[in-house]
Design goal:
Helices cover 30% and strands 30% of the residues. By secondary structure, it is α/β, with parallel strands linked by helices.
Length: 155
Protein backbone atom coordinates (compact mmCIF):
# COMPACT_ATOMS: atom_id res chain seq x y z
CA UNK A 1 0.00 0.00 0.00
CA UNK A 2 1.16 3.50 -0.80
CA UNK A 3 2.12 6.03 1.83
CA UNK A 4 2.33 9.80 2.22
CA UNK A 5 5.49 11.43 0.75
CA UNK A 6 5.94 8.71 -1.89
CA UNK A 7 5.97 9.68 -5.55
CA UNK A 8 2.52 8.92 -6.96
CA UNK A 9 2.58 6.09 -9.50
CA UNK A 10 2.25 7.53 -12.99
CA UNK A 11 -0.43 6.44 -15.40
CA UNK A 12 -1.94 6.86 -18.82
CA UNK A 13 -5.54 5.63 -18.73
CA UNK A 14 -8.48 6.51 -20.99
CA UNK A 15 -11.17 8.84 -19.68
CA UNK A 16 -14.88 8.42 -20.36
CA UNK A 17 -14.35 9.65 -23.95
CA UNK A 18 -11.44 7.30 -24.61
CA UNK A 19 -8.86 10.11 -24.42
CA UNK A 20 -5.66 9.24 -22.53
CA UNK A 21 -5.22 10.99 -19.19
CA UNK A 22 -1.70 11.12 -17.76
CA UNK A 23 -0.74 12.09 -14.24
CA UNK A 24 2.15 14.08 -15.75
CA UNK A 25 -0.41 16.35 -17.47
CA UNK A 26 -1.12 17.96 -14.07
CA UNK A 27 2.37 18.17 -12.60
CA UNK A 28 3.25 21.73 -11.68
CA UNK A 29 -0.28 22.94 -12.46
CA UNK A 30 -2.85 21.26 -10.26
CA UNK A 31 -3.37 19.23 -7.15
CA UNK A 32 -5.02 15.95 -8.14
CA UNK A 33 -7.61 14.07 -6.12
CA UNK A 34 -7.56 10.53 -7.46
CA UNK A 35 -10.40 8.47 -6.05
CA UNK A 36 -11.07 4.81 -6.69
CA UNK A 37 -14.57 3.41 -6.46
CA UNK A 38 -16.00 -0.08 -7.06
CA UNK A 39 -18.68 0.38 -9.74
CA UNK A 40 -20.61 2.97 -11.73
CA UNK A 41 -24.23 3.64 -10.79
CA UNK A 42 -24.25 1.76 -7.48
CA UNK A 43 -25.57 3.43 -4.31
CA UNK A 44 -22.31 4.32 -2.54
CA UNK A 45 -20.47 5.19 -5.73
CA UNK A 46 -23.33 7.45 -6.83
CA UNK A 47 -23.34 9.28 -3.47
CA UNK A 48 -19.59 9.84 -3.71
CA UNK A 49 -19.65 11.01 -7.36
CA UNK A 50 -22.59 13.36 -6.71
CA UNK A 51 -20.84 14.84 -3.67
CA UNK A 52 -17.63 15.47 -5.63
CA UNK A 53 -19.75 17.06 -8.39
CA UNK A 54 -21.58 19.30 -5.91
CA UNK A 55 -18.20 20.54 -4.66
CA UNK A 56 -16.57 20.79 -8.11
CA UNK A 57 -16.40 24.60 -8.04
CA UNK A 58 -14.77 24.57 -4.61
CA UNK A 59 -12.13 22.07 -5.76
CA UNK A 60 -11.56 24.11 -8.91
CA UNK A 61 -11.06 27.28 -6.86
CA UNK A 62 -8.24 25.43 -5.08
CA UNK A 63 -6.67 24.44 -8.44
CA UNK A 64 -7.62 20.84 -7.76
CA UNK A 65 -8.74 18.30 -10.34
CA UNK A 66 -10.94 15.43 -9.18
CA UNK A 67 -10.53 12.17 -11.10
CA UNK A 68 -12.52 9.01 -10.41
CA UNK A 69 -11.28 5.54 -11.31
CA UNK A 70 -13.05 2.20 -11.63
CA UNK A 71 -12.70 -0.85 -13.82
CA UNK A 72 -15.87 0.08 -15.73
CA UNK A 73 -15.70 0.78 -19.46
CA UNK A 74 -15.68 4.21 -21.10
CA UNK A 75 -19.26 3.58 -22.24
CA UNK A 76 -20.37 2.78 -18.69
CA UNK A 77 -18.73 6.00 -17.47
CA UNK A 78 -20.52 8.06 -20.13
CA UNK A 79 -23.89 6.63 -19.05
CA UNK A 80 -23.09 7.24 -15.36
CA UNK A 81 -22.09 10.85 -16.07
CA UNK A 82 -25.21 11.49 -18.19
CA UNK A 83 -27.60 9.89 -15.71
CA UNK A 84 -26.42 12.04 -12.77
CA UNK A 85 -25.00 15.06 -14.65
CA UNK A 86 -21.60 14.43 -13.06
CA UNK A 87 -18.86 17.04 -13.44
CA UNK A 88 -15.94 14.63 -13.15
CA UNK A 89 -13.25 12.95 -15.17
CA UNK A 90 -13.73 9.19 -14.88
CA UNK A 91 -10.94 6.83 -15.90
CA UNK A 92 -11.64 3.40 -17.36
CA UNK A 93 -9.03 1.13 -15.78
CA UNK A 94 -10.50 -1.91 -17.51
CA UNK A 95 -7.37 -4.06 -17.10
CA UNK A 96 -6.98 -3.09 -13.44
CA UNK A 97 -3.34 -2.04 -13.78
CA UNK A 98 -3.90 1.37 -12.17
CA UNK A 99 -5.85 -0.23 -9.31
CA UNK A 100 -2.91 -2.59 -8.78
CA UNK A 101 -0.32 0.23 -8.78
CA UNK A 102 -2.28 2.15 -6.15
CA UNK A 103 -2.92 -0.95 -4.04
CA UNK A 104 -6.72 -0.69 -4.11
CA UNK A 105 -7.37 -4.09 -5.74
CA UNK A 106 -7.73 -6.21 -2.63
CA UNK A 107 -9.56 -9.18 -1.22
CA UNK A 108 -12.88 -8.10 0.27
CA UNK A 109 -15.37 -10.07 2.32
CA UNK A 110 -19.11 -9.60 2.20
CA UNK A 111 -21.65 -11.92 3.76
CA UNK A 112 -18.87 -14.42 4.44
CA UNK A 113 -17.83 -14.54 0.77
CA UNK A 114 -14.32 -13.42 -0.13
CA UNK A 115 -13.54 -11.97 -3.54
CA UNK A 116 -11.23 -9.44 -5.13
CA UNK A 117 -12.49 -5.92 -5.69
CA UNK A 118 -11.70 -2.23 -5.51
CA UNK A 119 -11.41 -0.89 -1.98
CA UNK A 120 -12.85 2.63 -1.99
CA UNK A 121 -9.74 4.80 -1.60
CA UNK A 122 -8.57 8.35 -2.29
CA UNK A 123 -5.17 9.89 -2.93
CA UNK A 124 -4.25 13.57 -2.91
CA UNK A 125 -1.29 14.28 -5.18
CA UNK A 126 0.50 17.62 -5.00
CA UNK A 127 1.87 19.66 -7.89
CA UNK A 128 5.23 17.85 -7.58
CA UNK A 129 3.57 14.48 -8.10
CA UNK A 130 3.93 13.39 -4.48
CA UNK A 131 1.27 11.73 -2.36
CA UNK A 132 0.27 14.16 0.39
CA UNK A 133 -2.72 12.15 1.64
CA UNK A 134 -3.53 8.45 1.33
CA UNK A 135 -6.89 7.06 2.48
CA UNK A 136 -7.77 3.38 2.01
CA UNK A 137 -11.16 1.87 2.87
CA UNK A 138 -13.16 5.09 3.12
CA UNK A 139 -16.93 5.49 3.39
CA UNK A 140 -18.76 7.13 0.50
CA UNK A 141 -20.98 9.36 2.61
CA UNK A 142 -19.26 12.62 3.59
CA UNK A 143 -15.99 11.59 1.97
CA UNK A 144 -15.88 14.36 -0.65
CA UNK A 145 -16.23 16.98 2.12
CA UNK A 146 -13.40 15.33 4.10
CA UNK A 147 -11.17 15.46 1.03
CA UNK A 148 -12.11 19.09 0.32
CA UNK A 149 -11.22 20.00 3.91
CA UNK A 150 -7.84 18.24 3.54
CA UNK A 151 -7.11 20.00 0.24
CA UNK A 152 -7.86 23.37 1.91
CA UNK A 153 -5.35 22.62 4.65
CA UNK A 154 -2.72 21.38 2.21
CA UNK A 155 -3.11 24.36 -0.15
Amino acid sequence: MLQVNQQAPGFSVPDQHGNPVNLDDYEGKNTVVLYFYPKDDTPGCTIEANDFTTMADQFSALETVVIGVSKDSCESHVQFIKKFNLQLILLADTDGSLCERYGVWQEKERDGIKKMGIVRSTFIINKKGQLVDVSYGVSAEGHAQEILDKVKILS
